[in-house]
Amino acid sequence: MKPAWIDALYAEKFFVGCSYHETAKKNERNVCCLDCCISLCPHCVPSHRFHRLLQIRRYVYHDVVRLEDLQKLIDCSNVQAYTINSAKVVFIKKRPQNRQFKGAGNYCTSCDRSLQEPFIHCSLGCKVDFVMKRYRDLTPFLMPCHTLTLGPDYIIPQDLLTDDDMAAYETPRSTVVDGDESMSWSSASSDNNNARAAAAYAATTTHVVRKKRTGFCFCTKSANSYKQVSEDPDDISTCISRRKGIPQRAPLC
Questions:
Q1: pTM as predicted
Q2: Bridge partners of 32?
Q3: How far apart are CA 194 and CA 200, in angstroms?
Q4: Helix boundaries (H) for 3-161
Q5: Which InterPro entries does the entry link to (predicted)?
Q6: 235/216 Cα distance (integer angstroms)
Q7: Which of 30, 157, 167, 209 is the most buried (most CB within 10 A)?
Q8: CA-based angle 16:53:111, to the nearest 5?
Q9: What is the distance between the alpha carbons of residues 226 and 220, in angstroms, rounded to a whole number?
Q10: Averaged pLDDT in 10-residue chunks for the chain of 253 residues
């Protein structure tokens, strides 16, 4: 026996325009409602917010789901995962190859695709077919999952959220005030420390001030005033490296 949501992942089309929100922006259907077994767009999600929702992603023109989300629904052992944006994903459908792989190493039980060890399935669909052919029952591999929500990176249009939804996503105001107070105190202390460090640094820093049409004036800055060392450009050669002498042409042979 297979659950209905697995067939929905196979049958539903994702990353196409939603027929209910044709004129709306960002109306790609990239969420699967596991309770209703239909695909949803961001504008449809608020009406299914109490259902189990699985976000569908795209990788190399194929539909994938995060391994972390799929493991809450079914055993994903022996299924090869791929890394996308520092997150591991699993392909949903089979990806048969034109050339069958019969060399050394592991290969998929359904698609004959070469895999890394110790994996033997290249997608969720390949494992489901393998289990159904061998055991004829998928129940031992299913996980009890009563709630499944979308990740924090999923964006829902704010104009579609009700007041209750906004309250659920909003941060408590007391936490924000406490955070602001701690941030202001830390910023004030850091400003004081920076001012002290700048004063100490300025007391011992040597500056070179450019004068108009008279070359350079080499000065040292004390805590209250500048102490002039020299104004004559000829004397600065001892302090500042000047250009080398006039280059000489090599003798002609």
A1: 0.61
A2: 39, 54
A3: 10
A4: 4-11, 67-70, 124-134
A5: PLATZ
A6: 10
A7: 30
A8: 65
A9: 6
A10: 90 93 91 95 93 94 94 94 92 81 76 88 94 91 93 74 50 34 42 53 43 43 46 50 67 65
